[in-house]
Amino acid sequence: MAIRALISPSPPSAEPGTILLETERLLIRRYMLSDAPALAEIANDPQVAAVMSDRFPSPYTVEDAETFIKDLNPQHDPSSPPEYPTTSGVFLKVAPAEGHHHTPAGDGLVLIGSLGVRPRADVFYRSWEIGYFLGRLFWGKGYGTEAVSAWARWMLETWPELLRIEAGRYSTNLRSGRVLEKSGFVFEGIKRSAVVKDGVVLDEVVYGLLRSDVEKEST
């Protein structure tokens, strides 16, 4: 069976460091290996790991970050075109206030989080799933909503055949729910007892954003 993939009329480069989009305060680009120390700094936090899957290392070392970035090479997944966005870094364009130490990323920007996308396959190939996290020092500043909202709309614009973007959160992660709702995602339902995290059974709350939802915003 032929692999179904979405085609973009103007696909982004697959090269590490490629800038995918910018917002007023943020820049989203593909990771470079030199970003590993900055990624480890924001990811090595039990409060971040608590809302991630168990694939997310905790503690999170520089070596973990290097392995993660190397594995983002699109050639590791032959089922996806190399221009697909995979996981990218969210960078603050203006340095935070003095008194906070942050390891500069590969180009001197301040890495504050990650955005990922998992294209689905077979009959679901026109639906993509996103995930994200921000370093804890950057919570509560609107960066998550700014990044997720722009990221989702950029994907819909860049891949015209994409119909749907979905996201899920643990029932305990209320902050993520607020980010999704402010970004225009619609609550769609609850998968009861779908998650076991740190020995605790949790529900998964599911959200979706349709191309038609975004088109209605401009009418």
Automatic annotation (TrEMBL):
Which InterPro entries does the record cross-reference, listed alphabetically? Acyl_CoA_acyltransferase (IPR016181), GNAT_dom (IPR000182), N-acetyltransferase (IPR051531)
Q: Does the keyword Nucleotide-binding apply?
A: no
Which keywords label this protein?
Acyltransferase, Transferase
Concerning PROSITE patterns, the annotation shows: GNAT
Query: Does this UniProt record's set of keywords contain DNA damage?
Result: no
Q: Which residues form the N-acetyltransferase domain?
A: 60-212
Per the record, the domain of life is Eukaryota
MF GO annotations = acyltransferase activity, transferring groups other than amino-acyl groups
The entry's family comment says: Belongs to the acetyltransferase family. RimJ subfamily.
What name does this protein carry?
N-acetyltransferase domain-containing protein
Q: Which organism is it from?
A: Clonostachys solani
